[in-house]
Amino acid sequence: MSSPALSEPYSDQHTTTAALSSNSTSDQQTSPENLTAEPDLEPVKVRRKPIPSKGHKKSRRGCFNCKRRRVKCSEQLPRCAHCSRMGVNCEYPAAPSRNSSPHPGAPLRSTPMALGLEDLRFFHHFLFKAYPPVPYGSQATWQSLASMVHEYDFLAHALLGLAAQHLTLTSTGDYSAMALNHRVTAMRSLNETLSKPCATKSDGDARYGTILVLMFQASCMPDGMTDFLITLRGCMVIESTMAGFKDSSFKDFSRDSYVESFRQLITCPPDLAYDETVLDEISASLRIIGPLCRSVAELRYLLHLERIVQLARTSVFEACLVTAGTFSLTNKMTDEEFASFTDPQNYSAQILLSHFFVLDHIIENAAMGTNCFLYSYTRAATLSMAAATSTSMISSTTTTAAPAPSCTTAVPDKNGFVPPDSCNANYGFYPSWEWNLVFAIAFAITTFVHVVQAVVLKKRFCWVIIMGALWLCICFVLRTLGAFDQQEMIYVVVSTLLFLLAPLWINAFAYMVIARLIYFLIPEQKVLNISARWLAKAFVAADIVSFFVQAAGGSMLADQNDAEKARLGQKVYMAGIGVQLAFVIAFIFVTVAFQCRLHRLMNGGKLQRSEAWVRPLVWTLFAVLGLIVVRIVFRLIEFGKGPSADNPILQHEAYQLCLDAFPMLVALVVLNAVHPGMVLKGPGSSFPKTSWCGKREVKTRNTAWFETDDDARQGYPLRDRGSESNVESGGRV
């Protein structure tokens, strides 16, 4: 009813009260006592009340004017006889409904809802066309829910809002303003109601049905993507507040029943041929989005979309069922993940959602056949969602002061390759999976042989060379996989780091072997007045420093999305590799001095060890150090030219394979052929594992032995007499 009608009862009551007060005052003035006490006052003529005719039946359906005047109303429509005679507006109270009785637990409305003709049209449209189509066959549930609108304002507004929005999409009229008004009113009223617990089953059904209707209305709104996800999450919250959800009318509205309803709607054969071009374009677009995803929720959503695309290639039937269950993915996120995922400024998540809704629309239309008319209204909303996302991104990029990009994003081929000058290019060349597989197998074989040799010869320090070989093996396994998926950043980053850092293990192993040979073969256990122990510690420590410097530079260099960071990483890596080269050259001079001292001992016949594998091992170590130098020089030249298109080394994979991978493979193989364990065997072949007190005791004992033993004065080695027992009792080998 209109607002003037709502104010009439208050006016009638006020007027009646005034009349009663006036009558009471008149009675007091005309009483005998008053006439006696005040003879000067003229008697007031009292108007007699009309006597009702005999046989009169009382009625409460008279108009407000007759009730105020306290006269019998003729109850004629549209105006009674008294109002017609007096020329005033005649209004009757609303007639109570005889067909429905109030529910014991039904809440009373404080503000009656005013309905217009358009609202009646919306209500009719909801009952026959606009009710949510899923789960399939739930029309009776929605019709039963619609019969409760007279008890719950929020439910009535929600139904009218969905119908108005649906009618906007399916007709030529624009009812979006009315739909939004009903939606806001329903949400405000529902929020007030949620502060109270559900008293009856009807309360729970009304609340749950309202949030479902609001969710489907959001799916019809052009900018309702975020609202759809929020209301979908709200369904889970409201369900948790319903104590008797198992007895609810919506007990079958579960995820499984939702998927099962799609199974009934799908009419296409399971082996329906799908347009491969559409799937290829969607898959290529997802590969471009991949590097932009940062959070775990985004990556999980991306993997789910890629799975749907793969299923669509084989069975649209299964893809449609998986798509139906994908809507609940956001309900499994934490509050922080959901807030970040639905943030309008999180463009990667917005793009993922747009891809999902477009993919859902395409697959449903292909799978449902003649039943696709149930979702025909979603086409406009889906396209509007995608357009709004792209428009928001374009406006954001145009308002920033960032310079225009110097590259373009290309569509990858089936293996993910794009031209090297593209923004999404991870390789400057087309990787050869055949050659990468060959190197992966070769490094796997040499790794296995090194493990066997370390176990058989009982040389624990060989774990260093095993790490270098294993890293190179893993590197080329990842490069082989990356050749088939060149947009996968994890393959690029990890393989690049392993490729750059693995040779440092081989370098450190050469340092350790030379130091042990000096300790084992040279009587004074020193070269260039540097003891073997300090020689090993100094050069291995320098190699470790170079390792961390190169690791820091390599990690920055592997980030292809930040050019400034990549240039800084290039400089840091070149500094680390320059330090490595300086120490390698210095160590080569130490090795030359060791070779000269060893040559004099062997020519003088003073070498007490077997000479069979000494010379081959020394020349093998020279070869290994030379190969490391070749590899370092190649890397300096490669990074010295910078990551420009004029650098031919970055445009051809053969340079990396021939001047980096192959030298390291040769170094590992020659160390297999001439293993240090063939020479370093027996007592004194390893540094003894002693404590600080033990070292002082050994030094004192060796000094006393040197002063009393004539052979020691002639140049024979001073070594720990307990080294043999140390090795036999489990000391370091």
Q: If you had to describe this structure to a student in words, what would you say it looks like?
A:
The protein is mainly α. Among the domains are: 118-253, no CATH class; 261-374, no CATH class; 436-678, Rhopdopsin 7-helix transmembrane proteins (Up-down Bundle). Helices cover 64% and strands 1% of the residues. It has 28 helices and two strands. Strands 1-2 form a two-stranded antiparallel ribbon. It is rod-shaped. One of its GO terms (cellular component) is membrane. It is found in: Membrane. Residues 1-14, 724-733 have a biased composition (Polar residues). InterPro entries: Fun_TF, RTA1, Zn2-C6_fun-type_DNA-bd_sf, Zn2Cys6_DnaBD.
Spell out the key features of this protein.
28 helices; disordered C terminus; Rhopdopsin 7-helix transmembrane proteins
Secondary structure class reads mainly alpha
Give unreliable regions as ranges. 1-42, 97-111, 397-405, 705-733
Rg over alpha carbons: 45 Å
Q: Please summarize the sheet with the most strands.
A: 2 strands, antiparallel
Q: Count of DSSP helices?
A: 28
* Helix-strand pattern: HHHHHHHHHHHHHHHHHHHHEEHHHHHHHH
If strands are numbered along the chain, what order do they take across the biggest sheet?
1-2
Distance between the termini: 99 Å
Percent helix: 55-70%
Strand content: under 5%
The CATH class label of the domain at 436-678 is: Mainly Alpha
User: What is the number of E strands?
Assistant: 2
Gross morphology is rod-shaped
CATH topology of the domain at 436-678: Rhopdopsin 7-helix transmembrane proteins
CATH architecture label of the domain at 436-678: Up-down Bundle
Q: Mean pLDDT, rounded to whole units?
A: 73
